[in-house]
Amino acid sequence: MPLFAILNQFQILKRDLRFAKELVSGVTRWRRRLDYVISELAGRTTESLEPEMRQVLRLGLYELTQMGAPSHALNEHVELAKAWVRPAAAGFANGVLREAARRAEAGKLPDPAAMAGGSSVRDRARRLGVVHSHPTWLVARWLRALGEESTLSLLVCNNARPSYSLRANGAALAAADEEDGAADEQGAATPAARLLRRLRALEGVEATPSPLLPSDFVRVASGLQSVLRSGLVARGLCAVQDESTGLAVQLLDPRPGERLLDACAAPGNKTLLAAGRMLGQGRVVALDVSAGRLQALRNAAEAQGLGAIVTTRAADLRQEAAAARAAADGGAAAASFDRVLLDAPCSGTGVLAKRADLRWRRTADQITQLSTLQDDLLNAASAFVKPGGLLVYSTCSIEVDECSDRVRAFLGRPEGGEFDLEAPPPGLMPEGVVGPDGCVATLPHQHGVDGAFAARLRRRGAAGA
């Protein structure tokens, strides 16, 4: 169970809960920089310290340097070292943290920007990685792909407080407006406009229509916790969802009456947005290997009034494709869907502002392994696209290995031989998100949303929409 869910089970003051969340999130985000300072003060690497001692010192240093805690507050961390590590460890923790407090007061804390090193990509990546608390291998990739200026902007963006958006559920909002007697007042309002009317009635909430997808998404500048407490999300009227996910569905452009397959559907944000676009007409099949996550998707579909057209199936896409190719009625029938969405498992390097832990959990080897999986899933998804139909491949990665490279590789294999990379029709996508190759790509520091990628692949055959 996630730590914050556990904390919520206890009778903890909201103020204390917010403080605990800030500590955990902040220490996770700034871990590498904190470790550099601790190593300089302690005269030894943090890897040589006991894990519990590392955490105590990280917490104390973060509270001192990032949260402005007075030096006497460090007594709590010394006591924590005594209880969590061992009684004799209190002296070491006290020495390191008191030295940090003295240097911080004098403006002389160790500064990783002054680290010695050469001018190679590896050396620059190491310095930037310590200063901005990212792994060296990842910074080096970005330096090569984006250049130094853009990489620096991305690092700063990843460490800033993340922003959040809400996806408005048009069907549920229209039904709620009808119940409230506001249907005539709302008229032909967009889902986002209906949601904004309700948000403006909540104290402390500042929200505006998304500049990218203004009909379906709302950006929340402040007051997200008030929105969650209001019940709007629990009632299915909206969902916390980044606008970048909506761009993949916008590129898919589902139409009423069509058959749509979401091939790696959980947790279902894209599934439900696509289903909402179909206005209750047609069929959406949500496929995923996780039965538990599909049940959550099913519950959300029911809450949002979309249960009639959304069906779920717990299965491996690759096995389903093999069955479908072997027999016309095996699994979900081959080549029977108008539109197929493959939101593939990926490294998630586009969402590091919201998921700071991912930067420490990913490795370069994992990206290679994920690329192989993505190839297999693209091959499998292609089996379900009927002639003239669309396959949209998307990720929440900003690594070219997982994005445009996978599309090019697919088009060069037999499974992609009947497909063409297709630019979106004029007016479908917002300005600034479509590259010269016709693919959709966002970067957090350029577009103000999570980093993401999507490509539109048309299967040759009957004319498609």
TrEMBL record:
Entry-linked Pfam families: Methyltr_RsmB-F, NusB
Family: Belongs to the class I-like SAM-binding methyltransferase superfamily. RsmB/NOP family.
Recorded GO MF terms: RNA binding; RNA methyltransferase activity
Protein name (record): Ribosomal RNA small subunit methyltransferase B
The entry's keywords: Methyltransferase, RNA-binding, S-adenosyl-L-methionine, Transferase
GO biological process, alphabetically ordered: regulation of DNA-templated transcription; RNA methylation
UniProt cross-references to PANTHER family, sorted A to Z: NOL1_NOP2_SUN FAMILY PROTEIN _ ANTITERMINATION NUSB DOMAIN-CONTAINING PROTEIN, NOP2 YEAST -RELATED NOL1/NOP2/FMU SUN DOMAIN-CONTAINING
EC number assigned by the record: 2.1.1.-
Chain positions recorded as S-adenosyl-L-methionine binding sites: 264-270, 288, 316, 343
Domain SAM-dependent MTase RsmB/NOP-type residue range list: 154-460
Active-site residues per Swiss-Prot or TrEMBL entry: 396 (nucleophile)
Source superkingdom: Eukaryota
